[in-house]
Amino acid sequence: MRSSLNIKLMSLLFDSGAKSDSLKKRLAPQISLILRQLSDSSTDLKSVLAAKIPKEQERVKNFRKQYGNTKVGEVTIDMMYGGMRGIKGLVCETSVLDPDEGIRFRGLSIPECQKVLPKAPGGSEPLPEGLFWLLITGDVPTDAQVKAISKEWAERAELPAHVVQLLNNLPTSVHPMSQLSAAITALNSESKYAKAYSSGVHKSKYWEYVYEDSMDLIAKLPVVAATIYRNTYKDGSGIGAIDTSKDWSLNFTQMLGYDDPEFIELMRLYLTIHSDHEGGNVSAHTVHLVGSALSDPYLSFSAGLNGLAGPLHGLANQEVLVWLQKLRQQVGDKYTEDQLKDFIWKTLKSGQVVPGYGHAVLRKTDPRYTCQREFALKHLPEDTLFQLVSNIYKVVPPILLELGKVKNPWPNVDAHSGVLLQYYGLKEMNYYTVLFGVSRALGVLASLVWDRALGLPIERPKSMSTDGLMKLVKAK
């Protein structure tokens, strides 16, 4: 596949052939140009996808026929009781999380995506539209292809009247994530897939209608999310019209009420890096699971949002900020390193964790943390809260290593994202997971299209009782 060639070309630049920074800089524009030229020149994403799907269906069919009985791992009792951690039991084409390298989107790391994905005129961060094209096709898109997606999403963005009425009638006391989930569920009235399924469309066509729903849903998400923000935290005034000449992030940020070019660039980065994290996390797995029952993308994604709202998943960035506020209240802004260490040890000895540190899979600093740190170093190096986060980055890992119970003492994405949002004035912490949800739609819906294209069946693992497991162990 063309995506394999993309990865090989990238490896020439980043892994083997270009050892020096100067050579990397000289080769980067040429490699980027080659990658863009490799992608199908059509700006119609659906037609590009339609050409790829039969080839991938045949590739998967032949692979399963030849290797279907091959074992890929073992399941232990600890895995069964421990949340299925480490069990290889899902297929996710869009991204893979390596414990040592971090996330790769269709084989490309975050720094590689930042280099090769199209950017807004004058911008330095990748456009989420480009990442979506990469996730769903495996190809790095051209500027023209990304502009076509921006325009198409803007044209699909209008909400039905009943969803607008629902959002405007919800009390502001309802959590923003509950409002988002309710609105997405109500949008299922617009599902083209549900209508096609009811009419008896052949299963080979399912992916086409899931694709249409996914494109509609991604297009409408910023409008829903901005309406929730304006209703809950501002004066409830209208969000303004969608501009078909602007990109997805720019329209979203301006609907929220922000015009700072730096903040718009941050939103492009934020919506890109939070989009996907392979298939086993709660939100991605939930969308896949509910979708496997042939529920439409609106119902599937709404279910995933309810998982994302949990404190062990998308709500974690809010918990980081709450913890940072407690720390600042105790030590002030003119603290010593010893004061930071004392507070961290008190946190750990009280039975709590240091929020934003550790990850179920990663065994290094999360690349999503690193790229946000680089953004902060570029745009807000003197910010007090950023400096606190930087100093915590110096002292927490050694403490966790000394504790001896933590496999990953390094920060994850949640340790940094809230700090950046605070700096640019978006201070309403309860809203942060909504931003995460808007971004996560890109990855999980791209995966859902492929679930239906490959005809993946309903997910139904076998469960056992403790008594049954005890008998099994004794028998062995």
Description:
The structure is a single chain. With 476 residues, the chain is mostly helical. Helix content is 62%, strand content 2%. It has a three-stranded antiparallel sheet. The longest helix is centred in the middle third of the chain and has 28 residues, at 206-233. The radius of gyration is 23 Å and the shape is globular. Its main location: mitochondrion.
List the defining traits of the structure above:
single chain; mainly alpha; three-stranded antiparallel sheet; 22 helices; 62% helix; disordered N terminus
Brief summary of the model shown:
The protein has 476 residues and is mostly helical. It has helices at residues 2-14, 21-38, 45-67, 77-81, 110-116, 128-137, 143-155, 161-169, 176-186, 192-198, 206-233, 248-256, 261-273, 282-292, 297-308, 316-331, 337-349, 367-379, 384-403, 414-423, 432-453, 466-475; strands at 95-98, 102-105, 108-109.
